[in-house]
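Notes taken during the Thursday session

The instructor put the following on the board and asked us to keep it in front of us for the whole hour. The protein is Putative outer membrane starch-binding protein. We were told not to look anything up and to reason only from what is written here. First, the residues (595 in total):
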Amino acid sequence: MKKIHSVIFTLVVCVTLLSCKDNFVEQQPIGSFPGSVLTTPDGIDKALTGAYSALNGAGGMDRGPGNILFGSIRGGEAHKGSTGGDQPQMIEIQKFEANAGNSNGLNNFRFYYDAVYRTNLVLTNLPNVEGLTDAQKTQIAAEARFLRGHYMFQLKRLFGNVPFIDEAVIGDPLVPNTDESGNFVDAWPSIAADFKFAAENLAPTNADKGRANKWAAMAYLGKTYLYMGNEGDNANYALAQTAFNDVIANGVTNSGVKYKLNNDYHANFNSLTENGPEAVFAVQHSVNDGSDGGYANSSRDLQYISPQSGGGPGDNRGYGFFYPSQWFVNHFRVDANGLPIFNDAARNADKIKSDDGIPAASPYTPDAGLIDPRLDWSVGRRGIPFLDYGQFSPSWVRDAAAAGPYISQKFFTSKAANGLAASRPENNLNINVIRYADVLLMAAEVEARIGSLPLAMDYVNQVRNRMATNTGSKENWVLNADGTPAANYKIGLYPPGSPQFASSAKALEAIFFERTLELGLEGHRAFDAVRFGAEDGTTDTKELNGFIAYESTLKGYLSGGTYTRVPDAIMPIPQQAIDNSFKDGKYTLEQNPDY
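Then, after some discussion, the predicted structure tokens were revealed:
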């Protein structure tokens, strides 16, 4: 068992002791942690572990580490799934029609500010703890600030104009999101400061695999600078470049292994091979570990996305959410050289064949055209093996008419891993927050913006090269039972002098597309589209409206949806949070523009 897991749930810290003094969504605190407990080394460690425990999202698609709803579904990679009428507020988010009363937005806002409170509880009590050395206190403070940076990062990129709440205001958390002049405050510098402190003070390795180390903090610092650069302060690109260069040259895992790409792509999504050299920071999960129900520290998203029937992954115990879109699947069509097809019309005209509308009893042969092999480690589709469950079965799809014929794959573990919780769909698969392929692609983006275009291409080719050859490994290309490739797979590398890397704009087009292929269904795409669009003025509108326009011809519920940068780049501040922010005769929270 992973050490940090046994601490979290045998002590039940996050449930019974760390009740939230909810900043904007509860008028009164619903519990407290006795101060005397927090003045001991054991007590402060429990409080820190409670802060870590929030990483798994406590069982919600709207707040889990995979960013299923706000990153992937909102980004067009997937449909809501389930049945057409289930959870209509999720459709509002996907169509960019959500208002300040949207319950998923409230859940996310409330959860992450609760998580911030947990980190501040550690930081405000740490100076009073007796029996720890200064070095031990610094390590604890650095871990807490890393976690606070992570939780505030989630809030900032989704809601935009949010206040940064630190330990100085833990007792009076109604902090305004505007300054004295009425301008919105910017939380990015404070988030960057947390990651910078963590990078400067965390140890490079840690016996507990689930804890943050120096290099996870450095990677997150680079990511934060990248977002800051995208939003207009381009001086931050050079800071991001420095951070990524350091991670690429020197970064190691908690076990001291130098970061590199796993040899096999699927090793990133296999509980038997997790915490490998590509894992920069991952949320740790376990099942059947003595915790509440045996699944309290599991990958809770599986409760929602596992099939309801057909005997597939999840053992018929889920709700059937999160179905990949045809628009997303079409991105994996490649040209004769194994390179992406960037023109939307041409790509969709040569769409990858599906069995949508074809009865399960009818014969079906999957697409014979050239396909990027990462598709079949991302999406379950008819005619292709699904992990070690045999051929994908249409019976696993809850309502194809509502959401299409595919299911997502990256959140499931194999039968061989024996990773399911007893009598539950949840499993023990870790969720990657940052993996090394992501670092390489972010580094490529920075190079394309301010540095070397050849180096940007090299980073992209490193990511592509992993899957360019069928090695015969069952974790590399998806193989049939006889060892032959399950589809007509091909990946090519960009050649020297490629016109796709002849200019910054063309290189960024390739990098954005590569992020969809490499990181698809991992919760990045909506945020990538928004930040690229903030910089170039077009990517978000083109990509997000392109999805709606294409998919609405297949699934009519999307008709009428439209993305407009203001207000849709960010979610509205939940109205309940605004209502609860009343202080000294006025509301401390202002709504985002145009909501």
